Structure formats: C-alpha cells, structure tokens
Amino acid sequence: MDPAVVLVLCLSCLLLLSLWRQSSGRGKLPPGPTPLPIIGNMLQVDVKDIGKSFTNFSKVYGPVFTVYLGMKPTVVLYGYEAVKEALIDHGEEFSARGHFPVAERINKGLGVIFTNGDRWKQIRRFTLMTLRNFGMGKRSIEERVQEEARCLVEELRKTKASPCDPTFILSCAPCNVICSIIFQNRSDYKDKHFLKLLEKLYANVNILSSPWMQIYNNFPALIDYFPATLNTLSNNAVFIKSYILEKVKEHQESLDVNNPRDFIDCFLIKMEQEKNNQQLEFTFEALVTTAFDLFGAGTETTSTTLRYALLLLLKHPDVTAKVQEEIDRVVGRHRSPCMQDKSHMPYTDAVIHEVQRYIDLIPTDLPHAVTHDIKFRNYLIPKGTTVLPFLTSVLYDSKEFSKPEMFDPSHFLDESGKFKKSDYFMPFSAGKRICVGEGLARMELFLFLTSILQNFNLKSLVDPKDLDITPVAKGFASVPPLYQLCFIPV
C-alpha cells in the first residue's frame, strides 16, 4: 500500500478516535465550547492570558464549564460560589492533584505538592506537623523572621540610597527563613552559591509562567520534540536538589535522634521509624523532593509578592505614607515590628491583603482532580478529571470588591477603618490543598514589609504615574516587571 495512503488512514483514525473520546463524555460533563480533534479548544484560548478566555467562556456557559486543553477535558470553576462548593464543601472529593506533566517529570511522583493518594496524605500530614513543631505561627519562627528582617534592612542600607533592582535582595530574606527551617542555617546575601540557587529558582518560575509551558503541559508529547525548555527547567531543579542532597548527607553524619534540629532531621528520624513499613513513603528520594518543594514554594511566592508589593507602594505613594504613619504610631523607630502589632495596624493589614488580592499570584491555582466520580451541580465529573479553580474570578469578584481592577486597600476596611475579613480572600487556595506555608508567608509579608517601611522611604526613578505594574507573564504565576528604586534611610 502507498505510504501516503497509510499516513492518511492513520491520521483519519486518530481524528476519529479523538472525536469519539471527546464526545463520549460531553453529555455528562458541564457545558463548554465545542472542541476540535486533538487540539481541543486551544485555538479559542489565549495562552498569554488564559484568564481572559475563561472569563469569556463563563459569560456563555456559566460558573462551571468544560474546556479541552488538548484531548482531555478540564472542568473550570469560576467565581466564589463554585470554588467554595468544590474545594471546601466537597473538599475530599476535589483534593487530588491534577495532571501537571512538566512538574511530574521533575518530581517523579514525590514530594508534597504534586503527589496524590495516601502518599500525599502521609507526607503532607508529616510536613504540617513538623513545621508546627518548629514554631510555624509560634514565637520561635517569629524570632527567626524578625532576625532575617533586620538582616534585610542592613543589606538595603548597603545600597546607600542608590538605584537598585530589589529582585534578589528580596528573594534572600524568605529563602533564608525557609532554609533555617529545613537546614538550620542561613546564607550571606552576597554568597555566590546562594545567589546561584536563587537565580535557578527565579528562572524556573519565569519558564513555568511562559505561554510555551502552558502548551507543553497540555501537549506533553511536544516536550520530546522540543526538549530545550524542559532541559533548562530540569537542570535548574537538579542543581537545587544536589544542594539539598549535600545537606541531607551532612545531617545523616551528625544526626541526634533525641535532639532534631530541623525538618531534615525530623524526616530522617521518621525514615528510621518507618523502615519496616511495606508501604514505605518516607524515603531518601521523598525527603529531597519534599525539601525541594518547600524550598521553592517558601522562597519564590513570598519574594515575588514582596517585589510586587514594593512596586505597588511606589505607584501609590499616598498608601505608603499612611502605612508609615501607622508604623510610627504603633511600633515607633526603636524596636522591631512583631506580630502582636498587626492587630493594632488595620490599614497595614489591609494593604498587605490588597497586594495579595490585586497581584493574583497563582491565577488558576495548581490543577486539582476529583478522587472519584462525583455529581456536582447536576453534572457528572468522572474520577481523575482535571479541575481548575480560577482564583482570579474570586479575588476580582465585583460583588465582594467594589473596584476589583484597582489597587484599593479599602476593600479590606470597614466604614470605621477597622480591618475587614473576606471569605473571597483565597490567594493561598482553599480546602484540603491549601498552601502548607500560609501561616509562615503571612508572617513574613507583615514583618518584612513593616521593617522596610519603618527604616526607609521608597523613591521611584520615574514619576509614579508612569510606573508600569502590568505583569510580564501570567501563566503559572503573575510575574511583575523588573524595576529599580532607591531605599532612602528615614
């Protein structure tokens, strides 16, 4: 038979199979745009701004709809009611981690972020317990963050009010905090190896947020044909994991089971206790990958939020002045800010919440999946179906926030100026998969920002009205544009 005919027949069969697979489940799933064979709805989705496409789909199909990002269906949850109903009211059923091929190739089914089933439950339970035992949300961690805040202030003084890009200075502070929890040590802000780690981490977040990565995740077969981007991502991850591996080996040699010093020690002790368990989840590889997850998530999310916060404060000097006035009144100039101050600083608290709401750091959350077939709003979502809680639609809901497209701290203040909580505040996601480091991140944002504004005035190099605050990428994360500023000592 002519090779061309064989090729046409094969392609025809592939198209028919694709059409059958896509149509066979559509009667049960929520409604959505009609997918094309193989590529699904990819031509109808703007990979540079998926959120805009989801908003348009929601206007046609409602708050729960199905899109095909490739050949497999993805159920999108749009708006607070749908997200809450799934992640909180049906938390267990929506607690699985959805398909994330790029991360799966790097983590190989290990760690605390991209695992599933009993493995995920065991590792997450252990991680939360260990972090709490080392004082997450308690005074011992607060003292570490305060000490790091003082180091950060001293490093900013060394800029001598000259223009500087704050990217890596602001990365060092949260990175040192998470390192003190994992390894019990911090690094100097000028340490070359330390900065190299941060560069690798920063590069990976930018790669993961690129439009290409959205395509790779939905068409994983392309990775094998265009491997360069994934190789960069993998090599950066290997560099960070090799650093963690060195620390683990050092800990093995000096381990005192009666006196654990940090997360690695606790994990090594747990490994010994569980060594006869046939369903062993606490392994050497699991330790390295879990520490890698904590290192990355504990550094980059907080540092990106800090970087974006300073940019917004430069853009809104009136807001900055009000925060500094509150710091002067409550904290003064002669002691470090502490978490007890927070309840007396409603405006500062509102500003930090508004920063997190406005920047919308992880727009589509990490993908969830349903643990078994579930009837949800009269639709049937089959086990394993990927679910995307569109967090932007919650953080930018006009029913809750009067001017969602604007940066306005009054979104979190009542008429008397007191701080106002909101159930719509979900930058850390919600439910069973909520960020394990939420408490630490909240503490760091408050103590680092108040320490900076207690000691420095922020000076923009351009007129604040001309500052561009539009994210340069909005895929996996919202990445702020690069900028420079001057830290002028008060």
From TrEMBL:
GO terms for molecular function: heme binding; iron ion binding; oxidoreductase activity, acting on paired donors, with incorporation or reduction of molecular oxygen, reduced flavin or flavoprotein as one donor, and incorporation of one atom of oxygen. It comes from Propithecus coquereli (Coquerel's sifaka). Residues 1-25 form the signal peptide. It comes from the Eukaryota. It is found in: Endoplasmic reticulum membrane; Microsome membrane. This is unspecific monooxygenase. Heme binds at C435. Its cofactor is heme.
